[in-house]
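Supplementary Note 2. Why include the ligand at all?

Several targets in our set were suspected to adopt different conformations when bound, so apo predictions alone were not considered sufficient. For every target with a known small-molecule partner we therefore ran a joint prediction. The input for histidyl-adenosine monophosphate is given below.
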Amino acid sequence: MAITAIKGFNDILPSEIEKWQHIEKTARDVFGCYGFSEIRVPIMEKTELFCRSIGDATDIVEKEMYTFTDKGDNRVTLRPEGTAGVMRAFIEHKLYAADPVSKLFYMGPMFRYERPQKGRYRQFHQIGAEVTGVSDPKVDAQTLTMLSHFFSELGLDEPSLEINSLGCPECRPAYREILKDFLRQKLDTLCEDCQRRLDTNPLRALDCKVEKCKVATADAPAMLEHLCTACDTHFTETRSYLDLVSTGYRINSRMVRGLDYYTRTTFEMITGLLGSQSAVAAGGRYDGLISDLGGPSVPGIGFAMGVERIALLLDNAKFQTSPALFIVALGEEAQKRAFCLSTELQRAGVSVEFDYEGKSMKSQMRRADKLSCGYTLIIGESELASGVAPLKEMKTGNQFVIALDSKTIAQELKS
Ligand code: HAM
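The joint prediction is reproduced in token form.
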């Protein structure tokens, strides 16, 4: 029996790849305008890095990490997300010393042992961006604006931005107690997970998908009503900067993120088109993470987008490119000429296909059609003798005679 891929691990096939490349290029172009540089970090890190940053009581660390012991007896983990590794590198290479403001982006595979379904995989890809060194709300607003800009550049106006504030170590502990008191009164009506997490991670009850938990927490106290003055001002100013540049958003006071490192601003880009996997991008501020990981006290904010989810929102067909020219060659000499001519044209930057096997004219035309080539050039014995051949534009059917000379053909195709 043939060997298949591991469950939840997908191939990205040629029919989709141009869409992926377009998404990646759009990110590079848009992020470049805001001053971001790319960083590439390993896909595997010491397990401790993720436990300390994402948090021991999160679903990711509790249940979803691909962790194993390597041959040197080290506990290692395939990265479930990008922020931890990027911040590890930021500290290790003292990037904060080179520039007080650092803007980094990354793209690549992440790994989580989740139950696969449409839009949720065990190997998935993120494009992420992180800004460190500034706690000013202008950076929050700019990061969110860049994220919205990226989606509109892709022609996707539907995913909408939701924002919240999760407070800081000053105000969140008190809120957690208020929320715990509230949840304790509803304990019997909560699902098992929410009951179990009451002490370790009570906020998760707010975004539990179980219907009875949604009902029980409908009038739960919100973090936004319990922010300290500094966090409240930060959130208000973030919103006012978003308004200044007309970046649309909605406040979602029940948004809870599945990673522990967040402080203050958190956000998600939500689509209604992918069923339960509605977040196409998510992120937030993490002012304590760098120091928690042993680095200096430097604030940070960032996000990551799920490339598979974005790809599901875009139509493959729009991104497929076709060869500019198909050379139909009849007879051995013509095939040789087609081989030389196509090589010269390819070296000149023109995409060309031809038949390798001496197939019939009909079969070669069929292939040219299937590949949606822009033009066909037909070479037979008489064309070789006269040095000119018919060039046909496939879309219009217009046909004219052209010299069998790569420069002339290249010029015609590029005009
Ligand atoms: P996250 O919310 O865990 O945040 O993931 C970000 C995005 O990755 C999600 O919104 C979703 O689009 C995509 N994603 C997550 N899990 C899967 C999956 N199993 N299959 C397909 N797509 C998935 C983070 O990872 C944070 N590091 C974001 C961040 C950066 N916060 C600050 N900086």
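DSSP finds 16 helices and 16 strands in the chain. The chain has two domains: 14-171+227-313, 325-414. Comparable summaries for the other entries are listed in the accompanying table.
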